[in-house]
């Protein structure tokens, strides 16, 4: 299992990597002095025993490099087998940063393998004033060497004049024996790219959470602050509230200097990210179970789809029971559901992506909605259910934006529902503690319908013009909220501490050949009123897929609004490529291989990624941003083979790997995932990826 970093920083995590290597497995080259028969064959100005700065111990090596001079460790007459010691590790510290070297292996006086050092340095380059670890897998490209060697050289590659040397320090040089290379810390998925870098995504398996076992994912957000999410497995065990897992049970993020921890509430609905669906009515039901059961009461399976240096995909699957059909005879249908949680280091919010597979259900037999993702967390970080803050307000966006404006929220709260909207979302917030939670779709409402029921008669209105539930109260009737938040927790003039929140779609979204995107009945009738003229239709069969961002933060910072703005910005992007190409289509869902055309070209809404196709592992592309700011985009490069690329340039400037751009090779899918830790704007944002 991978180890968790401390909330105080990533240093303890990096230290744990070193501690994981058994000392007896290392062939030490240098630690305060040369060891194990290695000799100093350097040419140039080298001091093997400087007292500072050191990475460990009391001495380090100082090297003043210029004019192709080199630091060299030789073991004459005692060659080392790369098969027995397949990994070289050491620490290096620069003076100005970006110092350039070639790593060379020699055997019997001849070079047998060499490569640029930057490709092995954590962060992608030697850093100024700080030690960075160098990890070299000898058998992997670009060295690709599995033979014997008796000399290791670090050669200046800048060609600087002697009057302008590069001063570097090197410490803790060792070769790692083969049995120690595959450490259990990394055995489950840092595919083809070596150990995770400092500050990389950290994953811990088998975490105890609410009586269940789960996986915890820890990353740094766009501001460089720590976040973590713990997902409870759904294949065995039962939580105290009866849940069988398959959901988020804990989320942490930083507020100022404090860590805010969001935990599942009690009472059976706790946790977040499971499925719920309601039938259009309950007239033809088998009576076997709840017709709108909470999905986390149904067991299933989990899968670690992808665990990379900076990115991960964790999957839940289950067969969700539907007990009611449109008409007699009633029959039970267990609908396969696939949910992917996507985590990307350098970005704030995990992505939740789902496919409902109705292909085994006869078309037209179901006419259900989808309220997934669904659930409830203590969003203000309260230590117990009773200590939760009152809900101050709620809001959502279907074709128009709804916002309540009376704090705390009650059925008598004032509201507006009159601002045009393009990206569906739902949110609620507290003000006694500055906190919010929301759900934001990864594409527009025109691209993927969202929101349901019959609230459109209140569009372009405010509570100053009309009552939302005539004869009852000012807010919309609880059955008429397009996205469920706390509508069923309010009554009379009471406020609520419940933070339940869910998605919403119209009836027929699951199961009908066609259902009304807007209007009053799933099949176009008028069971609950009169359908609006010209309401468009959409298929609800054989599969339905969509994706949403799960958003947490302070209400005052409006992270939900910021994520909505990001999807709006993406709609105006124009991607192009001169080396490689822009991907224009891909699977329609996480478990739907049907090809869909991307809009805009290159944007995969299933995983929220700008998607390109490599040419011989290279890419030269441009991201034109028509309006707004594109913040820390996720890039996916298809048809990519091998491990980490050597260089990424943005508008000609070389960025530092694992610091400015966060790559994760995904060999099984022939993909390279990258979080670009830059905010992009304007027409020219040239991305060059060089192997």
The rounded Rg comes to: 28 Å
Uncertain runs are 1-24, 180-192, 521-531
Arithmetic mean of pLDDT? 90
Q: What percentage of amino acids are in beta strands?
A: 35-45%
Overall shape: elongated
Biggest sheet strand order reads 20-21-22-23-34-29-28-25-26-27-30
* Number of helical stretches of at least 4 residues: 3
Largest sheet: 11 strands, antiparallel
Roughly what percent helix? under 10%
The chain-level structural class is mainly beta
CA-to-CA gap between the ends? 30 Å
Describe the model:
With 691 residues, the chain is mainly β. It contains three helices and 48 strands. It has an eleven-stranded antiparallel β-sheet with strand order 20-21-22-23-34-29-28-25-26-27-30, covered by helices on one side. Strands 1, 3, 4, 7, 10 and 13 form a six-stranded antiparallel β-sheet that branches.
């Amino acid at each position: 299992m991978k180890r968790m970093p401390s909330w105080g920083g990533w240093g303890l995590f990096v230290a744990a990597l070193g501690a994981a290597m058994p000392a007896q497995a290392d062939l030490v080259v240098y630690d305060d002095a040369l060891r194990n028969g290695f000799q100093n064959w350097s040419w140039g100005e080298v001091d093997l025993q400087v007292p500072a700065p050191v990475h460990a111990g009391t001495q380090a090596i100082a090297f003043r490099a210029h004019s192709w001079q080199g630091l060299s460790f030789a073991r004459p007459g005692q060659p080392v087998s790369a098969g027995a010691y397949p990994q070289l590790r050491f620490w290096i510290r620069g003076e100005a940063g970006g110092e350039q070297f070639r790593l060379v292996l020699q055997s019997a006086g001849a070079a047998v393998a060499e490569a640029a050092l930057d490709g092995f340095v954590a962060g992608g380059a030697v850093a100024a004033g700080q030690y960075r670890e160098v990890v070299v897998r000898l058998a992997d490209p670009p060295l690709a060497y599995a033979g014997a060697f008796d000399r290791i050289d670090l050669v200046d590659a800048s060609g600087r004049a002697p009057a302008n040397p590069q001063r570097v320090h090197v410490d803790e040089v060792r070769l790692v024996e083969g049995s120690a290379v595959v450490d259990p810390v990394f055995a489950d998925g840092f595919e083809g790219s070596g150990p995770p870098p400092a500050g990389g995504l950290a994953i811990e398996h088998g975490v105890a959470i609410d009586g269940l076992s789960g996986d915890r994912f820890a990353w740094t957000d766009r501001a460089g602050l720590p976040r973590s999410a713990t997902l409870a497995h759904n294949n065995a065990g039962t939580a105290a509230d009866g849940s069988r897992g398959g959901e988020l049970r804990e989320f942490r993020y930083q507020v100022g200097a404090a860590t805010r921890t969001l935990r599942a509430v009690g009472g059976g609905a706790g946790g977040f990210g499971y499925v719920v669906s309601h039938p259009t009515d309950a007239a033809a039901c088998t009576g076997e179970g709840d017709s709108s059961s909470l999905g986390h009461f149904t067991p299933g399976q989990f899968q670690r789809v992808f665990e990379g240096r900076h990115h991960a995909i964790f999957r839940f699957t289950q067969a969700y029971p539907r007990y009611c059909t449109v008409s007699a005879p009633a029959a039970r249908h267990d609908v396969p559901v696939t949910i992917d949680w996507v985590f990307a280091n350098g970005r704030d919010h995990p992505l939740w992506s789902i496919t409902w597979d109705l292909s085994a259900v006869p078309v037209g037999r179901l006419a259900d909605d989808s309220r997934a993702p669904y659930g409830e967390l203590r969003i203000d970080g309260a230590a117990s259910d009773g200590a939760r803050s009152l809900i101050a307000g709620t809001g959502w966006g279907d074709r128009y934006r709804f916002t309540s404006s009376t704090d705390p929220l009650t059925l008598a709260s004032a509201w507006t529902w009159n601002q045009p909207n393009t990206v569906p979302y739902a949110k609620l917030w507290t003000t006694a503690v500055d906190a919010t939670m929301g759900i934001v779709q990864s594409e527009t409402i025109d691209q993927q319908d969202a929101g349901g029921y019959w609230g459109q008669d209140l569009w372009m209105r405010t509570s100053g013009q009309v009552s939302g539930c005539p004869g009852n109260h000012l807010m919309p009737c609880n059955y008429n909220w397009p996205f469920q938040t706390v509508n069923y927790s309010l009554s009379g003039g009471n406020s609520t501490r419940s933070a339940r929140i869910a998605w919403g779609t119209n009836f027929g979204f699951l199961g009908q050949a066609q259902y009304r995107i807007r209007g009053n009945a799933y099949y176009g009738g008028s069971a609950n009123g009169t359908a609006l003229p010209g309401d468009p239709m959409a298929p609800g069969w054989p599969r339905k897929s969509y994706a949403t961002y799960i958003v947490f933060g302070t209400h005052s910072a409006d992270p939900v609004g910021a994520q909505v703005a990001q999807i709006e910005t993406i709609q105006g992007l124009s991607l192009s490529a001169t080396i490689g190409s822009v991907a224009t289509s891909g699977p329609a869902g996480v478990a739907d291989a049907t090809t869909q055309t991307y809009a805009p070209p290159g944007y995969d809404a299933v995983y929220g990624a700008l998607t390109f196709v490599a040419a011989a592992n290279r890419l030269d592309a441009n991201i034109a941003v028509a309006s707004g700011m594109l913040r820390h985009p996720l890039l996916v490069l298809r048809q990519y083979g091998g491990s980490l690329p050597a260089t990424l340039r943005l508008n000609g400037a070389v960025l530092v790997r694992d610091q400015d751009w966060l790559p994760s090779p995904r060999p099984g899918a022939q993909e390279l995932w990258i979080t670009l830790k830059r905010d992009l704007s304007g027409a020219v944002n040239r991305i060059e990826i060089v192997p």
